[in-house]
Amino acid sequence: MTVFVAAAVVIVVMSTISLYRVAAGSSVFDRVLAAGAIGTNAIALLALTGFIFERPDMFVDLAIAYGLLNFIGTVAITKYLEREGEQ
Question: pTM of this prediction?
Answer without folding.
Answer: 0.82
